[in-house]
Design goal:
heterodimer; A: 291 residues; mainly alpha; Helix Hairpins; Four Helix Bundle (Hemerythrin (Met), subunit A); B: mainly alpha
Chain lengths: 291, 532
């Protein structure tokens, strides 16, 4: 085969990318129909999700067996590393959009609605009684939006969640040290602890959401505070969930004896991702919960 | 489609054939071809929408289409042309050319590469299916400003998901380009030897990775505002509709450089080839591209001068905007200096490049006018803006895409294209495109608003002229397809170098090149300086 004589590794044809597109397409169509209130929506969405999961097993299974088969050379390893790093950067920019929105409403939109600045007459003509404040418990109009009594304070569960995530960052690094010095036991133990801490974080976060919805009246509908709060923490929580699943896969692979002290890109990619969700959480803790 | 297949029978045993080959391919040339064909199809779909717009505007009054459908056409034309035609075309060129230019066998992440292409047909199925939905397709403008866009009917979630999907494709494609260039260069291919097309594409890829996720965030907020009761863009809930414009244009302005930066790379390859002289000021071209990319992130609010911003904001965004003229001017002067005292010939790629330099500069100047805040107060949302961005996108991006197609078609197919037909295509396009867009400057200055299906009678003459130019331009593009099909099917044999003045690694490969470009890295001695 011509590729075999090459200095490079170029993978054979693969049906997985097309399957990925097809499954996501089905999920989008199903999701859109569901949002529009169509009857077929949830079915199409579920079929798409099933095909998507099937694809994940196929595509990653393919890559894992190639990796364990020793096909990948150092150049492929570097390509994967760079690819993952830039993917994480794109995720950073996705969160930047929501942090930017939070900054804009806190620094501009809400003060202007409260009558600050010159030229904007919204306060004067539309909502003269509106008082700018943050957290904004009382939106300018309750027509379409609801007010709420209290926000989630920084020093309760969010503080403990911060400690949980920071600790999990340490345990995953400890697992990495284990991998590098050839201690499989330390690797598995460290990863198991990280997965447990990740799951604990998600559990606490879900509890807090329940508390916000049922006791504080803080919902997605609670004006701009609820919108920024739930989308920022929600997308973060989603990423932690994904990260926990990814870590669990790496844990399972570690138990099966995958990875060597020198070759363990899969482990490192997930560790990077985990540190990324950690850093995003620090941003959330400071700008959403604390100040 | 068959050019890559027919000449490399040795590979047929290992690759699926027929439709399955195209669905599962991991080859950069196959994927490049798919991208380019997709872009061409979208160019005609978007073009058909433009024809409907020009038909309705041929004379005052409402004659052919409903106003709602007219607005759908302007919205969909923009989305299809930007995300379906120009961006995929650039990724197609990147796929075909970058591995050959840097001495690599393929792209660094071939399966991801297949995925970034095969998202697109699905994403555009989502988008174009809205044409047949209750409430019609999106009609609030491609910029999707709330609250108007929230009034879209059943099409709304399809629009949002289509944008998410094509964004994922762009990010994946951009990651692939960056990783390929940084990790797959042949030994001796140092960064400052890279052809400018590669340089401009890396910078484009940075812009994509940094800006597309922001668009994804913005449309996600639209989705939750519509369906989940959030208040991001509603003042009643403490949000702000203007905030959408800020977030959107934080993506949107880098986006316009995503559309044009690779064009700068193309022109920087073609002008030296046909001037038979090294490019003047190679390193200044690299730095100017980087400067443009940096500035593109701090100028966004010049799209919204009239929306109501503090004075300091208006001034800041005016100054940064006008500053872009400096690196852009560096580029135009470098191209002109390359031609100075050279021995030029005027084959079709060169003709399109020369037209680019002149006409893109016109678009640049009208952009400068629009960048001046008080002046923009008069021009905002008029046909002057339409004329401006069509000069930079049609006679800019699209002309450079055509130049690039004529330039590399002989390399891809192994055949020379029909020079006479190509010249006809060039002259018809260049004359008609000016008849099409130049009068729109006058319409805009006289106050004709954009995105309106009807107009006051005093605008009739220029509109009729513009429509005639539009029809001729549209029909002329059929010639483009004929030239391509003829060239793929046969024609005079092209040499490896193809053009007398051509320099660079891609010209050292046979025409057409082997299925995997460089299975072993080329000798470092064959790598010339990038200034060639």
């Amino acid at each position: 085969m011509a590729e075999a004589q090459s200095d490079y590794y170029v993978p054979e044809s693969s049906q997985w990318p097309f399957t990925a597109s097809l499954s996501i397409f089905l999920m989008f169509v199903g999701g859109a129909l569901t949002l529009n209130g169509g009857g077929m929506g949830p079915t199409v969405l579920a079929i798409g999700a099933l095909v998507f999961v099937f694809m994940l097993f196929g595509w990653f299974g393919n890559v894992i067996s190639e990796s364990e088969g020793g096909i990948y050379n150092d150049q492929v390893d570097v390509s994967f590393r760079m690819g993952m790093a830039w993917f994480i950067f794109s995720e950073v920019m996705f969160f930047a959009a929501f942090f930017g929105a939070l900054y804009y409403v806190r620094m501009y939109a809400v003060p202007w609605l409260g009558g600050e600045g010159s030229g904007a007459a919204t306060n004067q003509f539309l909502w003269p009684d509106f008082v700018a404040a943050w957290p904004l418990l009382q939106p300018p109009s309750t027509y379409g939006f609801s007010d709420f009594q209290e926000t989630i304070g920084a020093w309760g569960v969010p503080f403990w969640n911060t400690l949980i995530l920071l600790t999990s960052g340490a345990t995953v690094t400890w697992a990495h040290w284990g991998l590098k010095k050839g201690s499989r036991q330390q690797l598995v133990l460290g990863l198991a602890a990280t997965v447990a801490l990740g799951a604990l974080f998600v559990y606490f976060q879900a509890e807090e959401y329940g508390h916000a919805y049922h006791e504080l009246g803080l919902t997605l509908n609670s004006g701009i505070y609820g919108a920024t709060f739930f989308l920022l923490t929600g997308f973060h929580g989603f990423h932690v969930t994904m990260g926990t699943i990814m870590l669990a896969v790496i844990l399972a692979r570690s138990i099966k004896g995958h990875f060597t002290a020198r070759h363990h890109f899969g482990f490192e990619a997930v560790a990077w991702y985990w540190h990324f969700v950690d850093v995003v959480w620090i941003g959330l803790f400071i700008f959403v919960y604390w100040i | 489609m068959s050019e890559a297949a027919t000449h490399h029978d040795d590979h047929h045993g290992h690759h699926p054939s027929g439709i399955k080959r195209w669905l599962t391919t991991t080859n950069h040339k196959d994927i490049g071809t798919l991208y380019l064909i997709f872009a061409l199809v979208m160019f005609f779909i978007g073009g058909a929408m433009a024809m409907i717009i020009r038909l309705e505007l041929f004379q005052p009054g409402l004659q052919f289409v409903e106003p709602q459908f007219f607005n759908s056409m302007t919205t969909m034309h923009a989305l299809v042309m930007i995300f379906g035609a120009v961006m995929p075309a650039w990724t197609g060129f990147a796929n075909w050319m970058i591995p050959m230019m840097i001495g690599a066998p393929d792209m660094a992440l071939p399966r991801l590469n297949n995925w970034s292409f095969w998202i697109l047909p699905f994403a555009f199925t989502l988008l174009l299916s809205t044409l047949f939905m209750p409430g019609g397709s999106p009609a609030g403008g491609w910029t999707m400003y709330p609250p108007l866009v929230l009034q879209t009917g059943d099409a709304f979630p399809f629009l949002i998901f289509a944008v998410h999907f094509m964004g994922a494709s762009s990010i994946a494609g951009a990651i692939n380009v960056i990783v390929t260039v940084f990790n797959m260069r042949a030994p001796g291919m140092t960064l400052m030897k890279l052809p400018l097309f590669v340089w401009t594409w890396i910078i484009t890829a940075f812009l994509l990775i940094a800006s597309i996720p922001v668009l994804a965030g913005a449309v996600t907020m639209l989705l939750t505002d519509k369906f989940f009761g959030t208040a991001f863009f509603s003042a009643a809930g403490g949000g702000d509709p203007v905030m959408f414009q800020h977030i959107f244009w934080f993506f949107g302005h880098p986006e316009v450089y995503i559309l044009i930066l690779p064009a700068f790379g193309i022109i920087s390859a073609i002008v030296p080839t046909f001037a038979r002289k090294p490019l003047f000021g190679y390193s200044s071209m690299v730095y100017a591209s980087a400067a443009i990319a940096f500035l593109s992130f701090i100028v966004w609010a010049h799209h919204m001068f009239t929306v109501g911003m503090p004075l300091a904001g208006e001034l800041f965004f005016m100054y940064t905007t006008v500053l872009i003229a400096v690196p852009t001017g560096v580029k135009v002067f470098n191209w002109v200096a390359t031609m100075w005292q050279s021995s030029m010939t005027f084959e079709v790629p060169m003709l399109f490049s020369l037209a680019f330099i002149v006409l893109f500069t016109i678009g640049g100047f009208s952009g400068l006018m629009l960048g001046v805040t008080p002046v923009d107060f008069q021009y905002h949302d008029t046909y002057f803006v339409v004329a401006h961005f069509h000069y930079v996108l049609v006679t800019g991006a699209v002309f450079s895409l055509m130049a690039a197609t004529y330039f590399w078609l002989p390399k891809w197919t192994g055949h020379m294209y029909d020079e006479t037909l190509g010249k006809w295509h060039f002259w018809l396009s260049t004359i008609s495109v000016n008849v099409l867009f130049f009068p729109q400057h006058f319409l805009g200055l006289a106050g004709m608003p954009r995105r309106i299906p009807d107009y006051a009678v005093q605008f009739t003459d220029f509109n009729t002229m513009s429509s005639i130019g539009g029809f001729v331009f549209g029909i002329s593009q059929i010639l483009f397809v004929i030239v391509i099909v003829k060239c793929v099917k046969g024609g005079a044999k092209a040499s490896d170098q193809v053009w007398e003045g051509a320099h660079g690694l891609e010209w050292t490969l046979p025409s057409p090149p082997p299925y995997h470009s460089f299975s072993v890295p080329p000798e470092p001695s064959t790598i010339e300086g990038g200034m060639r």
